[in-house]
Amino acid sequence: MKDRRLARRTCTEARSHPRAVRQRTERVALQRNNVNNLHMISSRPTPERFVSEPIRPVVETADTARMAAGEPGLPREFEWRGRAIVVASVMRAWRETGPCRHGSGERYVRKHWYEIVTPAGDVMKIYFERQPRRGRIVSHWRLYSVRAGGAGTP
Q1: 23 and 96 in one domain?
Q2: Using an 8 Å Cβ cutoff, are 131 and 101 in contact?
Q3: Gap between the Cα atoms of 71 and 114, Å rounded
Q4: Which of 32, 60, 72, 151 gives 128 a disulfide partner, CB atoms 3.0 to 4.6 angstroms apart?
Q5: Which long-range contacts (CB under 8 A, 24 or more apart) does 55-58 make?
Q6: What is the pTM of this model?
Q7: Same domain for 56 and 17?
């Protein structure tokens, strides 16, 4: 008897779990073809996909104003996997700092991060690595992740 009550409680808890509620709501919305509940399905954000690949900036499109301020010149266009990616807007920018590698108490900027939006609506996180690791001959610019927003995945 005790096991049956425990199983019933566990089943009830599982039904009230947010994921289970969402899945049940989606299933009911699809079964009823209820337009009012379909917004719950399409409003879920698309997952961010980890990429971590080098990108090649188009040098002519670098932001010289940022370079004058001591930051890397964020390119308005770069090449990734043989395709040209255009930067429509910058959502946010931040810096990653780290301690001095020679023992002093100073902190240095290691990476400049940018979250950008493409004309297709894709959101990409890119960064500029100030001092790439030893032996790395590839670009200082890297594409960290992609989240598809509009016309599909790049």
Answers
A1: no
A2: no
A3: 12
A4: 72
A5: 55/79, 55/80, 55/85, 55/126, 55/139, 55/141, 55/142, 55/143, 56/80, 56/139, 56/141, 57/139, 57/141, 58/84
A6: 0.64
A7: no
